[in-house]
Amino acid sequence: MSTFVIGDIHGGLKGLLEVVQKVNFQKTDTIIFLGDYVDGWSESVAVIDYLITLNKTQNCIFLRGNHDDLLLNYLKNNKYSDEWLNHGGKSTLEAYKNATTETITNHIYFLESLFPYFVDKDNRLFIHAGFTNLKGVTYEYFKPLYYWDRTLWECAIALDPLMSIDDERYPKRLKLYHEIFIGHTPVSLIGKTTPYNVANVWNIDTGAAFKGPITILNVETKSFWQSQPLHMLYPSEKGRN
Question: 214-217: which pairs have CB atoms within 8 A and are 24 or more residues apart?
């Protein structure tokens, strides 16, 4: 039994299918999706359809991303902001114009069922963005930080790599879990194209919304697989570029 984690997808079904085919998943494996299934490329509806189907044959854990939460608000309340449209929501809005009432109902159910985070038996935390409470995720006061926070990642990449974990200045948040797996903030912002590890934090968002690939990482071995950069799979689209 192995555990795999998948980073941000952002409507890129072609990339998701490509990278999934590279991994020889076993029925006993667990696949953890870090969220942001939508917004960017044109196939947000098809991505969620695929995930719903995959969950019938594979043990999957689906986490909530900020873009998934924005979509849920639109599907339930028919409300959205220009901010959402300007950050990938326009393609999602267009995709749902052709969705049936049944599809929308199923997608609302899926989006409402997403987990805010997951902690496994080995004290590994999986979360879309981060958390701020020094006691851990269960103590977080403002729950949307699970899928909006960037301070955890900023804290990790700013950390002096020579600082001992026993140093009184060492960030308390980075002592709470054996490992932390996140998405949300593309590693391309620091010039990376593959999963990036700092301290005990692994960032799996390899920029699929822009000009990066979708990535799958084996949690135990740290082997990883990637799709082609998504702008190459959708040459007539802009994504979030």
Answer: 214/6, 214/7, 214/8, 214/9, 214/12, 214/15, 214/16, 214/18, 214/19, 215/6, 215/7, 215/19, 216/4, 216/5, 216/6, 216/19, 216/20, 216/22, 216/23, 217/4, 217/5, 217/6, 217/7, 217/181
